[in-house]
Amino acid sequence: MKRLFLSLIGATLLFGSSAFAQETTTNKETYKWQMRLRGVGVIPHNKADISSIGGQIDVNNNFIPELDFTYFFTENLAAELILGTSKHTVGTIGSTLDLPPVVNGPATANVDLGSVWLLPPTLMIQYHHKFGDIFKPYVGIGANYTIFYNEKSGAAQDIKYDNKFGWGYQFGFDIDLTEKFFINVDFKKLFLKTDVTVDASNLLSSEAPINELKIPAKVKLDPMLIGFGVGMRF
Q: What is the value of pTM for the model shown?
């Protein structure tokens, strides 16, 4: 009886250990979601066509927090929604404001166009791969819709940015700290365009034959985003 009792205890412990190991393995395979919080450097590579006054656009760099959520369809294929917003000061370099009798300004000028906030929610389709137990690189490609808001006009009377669709790509890697928590390094390139209309009617000279001066521009922002952060699977 004693031997039978010990055998039953041993079998129970063995079965329990096997079940726990199997459950742990199953848990690892059933993490469908992960969330990351990153600090991101936003570096615009901007270019503009300002036909009426010439010059080039100047948009400053920024550092922002970024949040993303990833859903895994399979072990390798996932979709990531990236959320972040950034504020940028905007201006022109080398524009011509010597346009008599419309504007009596300098032949070469840097024009302060105030600031604007950008909100470009981005959806990426990703491919993930695992090297060893902790290193997990990935690549992704996707689309975004950039919303411009809270514009400040600077030297002009008013400024308007058109919301636009764009696209982007990314690559990066996760390094596991535990089964659920990891650190992340991420690089993204977004391709953002917008049509800008600057209302510079307040800069008209007293001899101007018109009473309204609107300056159109086509602007490419194309920011590079370099991020580092932490993540959690659930």
A: 0.81
